[in-house]
Amino acid sequence: MTATTAERTICLVPGDGVGQEVIPAAAEVLAALGLELRFVEASAGFAHFEQTGEAMPETTLADVAAAGLALFGATSSPSRKVAGYRSPILVMRRTFQLYANLRPTQSLPGAFSRPGLDFLIVRENTEGLYAGRERMEGEAAIAERVITPQATERIARAALEQARRRAAAGRPAALTIVHKANVLSLTDGLFRDGCRRVAAEYSEVEVNECLVDTAAMRLVRDPQDFGVLVTTNLFGDILSDEAAALIGGLGVAPSANLGERVAVFEPVHGSAPDIAGQGVANPIGAVLSAALLLEHIEQPAAAERVRQAVHAALQAGYRPADLGGRATTRDVTRAILENL
């Protein structure tokens, strides 16, 4: 799942709302590193769908496939079903089999962040309740939860490889399998047992398990006890948003969607239409997602430069509104650039 250092083209897909502001900021930070990166920009999103009837054009999928790397902003998915519309990020996850969603939580400078946190949620990204199998039976709406041995073993191996690398770097690395097998005995039983089978190949990694409701409580009470958590699609989505609250909220939370040939990096916040276009969006989640991209293309030193520049900007008082400050998107971006 690691790109080679020869892959230097990055497809920028800003999407909707504040994605149009934070993805250019992240690209500017990447461009300032002197790594000879090349950028191509492509369109997607609900606004594009309203204009053209396509939320994720085939040309954009082709651009992402050709680059193998993408920075995605946000999409304004409607709360009700709209004929012909499919979320661009979900389309990319399915098209490119971006099966591993990495959502790291690391403390940031400032009173808004809990100190001493360094853990990673590894979320299965292709099935579970997000498999898209919904139907009506009379007046009842039915959703099917899909868990397969193949996807389970694939995500377990991805999580264990992450744990192995973290252990080698001296970071918290114990693997926690998060499930609800006491109630969902078939689906989550399969997930737990599949993870356990793969974990048997990694004798150097400490492995334990936790019910999802208990994991949610522990993330609030004792988050510093976690190293790597691996879980199913919906559980991972919920727990990672909860984890983001520990370090300041969704505005600072990065993520990676990894497949065998394509990787898409995105801040986990939404399109925030209430503040879009005002120049006050928080670019940190997008910038830290760019740092994950740098690690993926085997540029760990550059990734660390970006993280340290973000920390320095925050320490200097450059905090946007969602972190209790008054800095604009441009203020924060400029401060990060100056600290590179």
Instruction: Name the CATH architecture of the largest domain.
Output: 3-Layer(aba) Sandwich
N-to-C order of helices and strands: EHEHHEHEEEEHEHEHEHEEHHH
Radius of gyration: 19 Å
* Class derived from helix and strand content: alpha/beta
- Low-pLDDT ranges: 1-5
Number of helices: 11
Order of strands, main sheet, comes to 2-1-3-12-11-4-5-10-8-9
Number of domains: 2
Report the biggest beta sheet as strand number plus sense, adding barrel if it closes.
10 strands, mixed
CATH superfamily of the largest domain: Isopropylmalate Dehydrogenase
Per the CATH scheme, the topology name of the largest domain is Isopropylmalate Dehydrogenase
CATH class label of the largest domain = Alpha Beta
Total E-strand runs: 12
Coarse shape:
globular
Helix content: 25-40%
Overall average pLDDT: 95
- Range of strand content: 15-25%
Which structural traits does this protein have?
ten-stranded mixed sheet; Isopropylmalate Dehydrogenase; 340 residues; 39% helix; 2 domains; disordered N terminus; alpha/beta; two-stranded antiparallel sheet
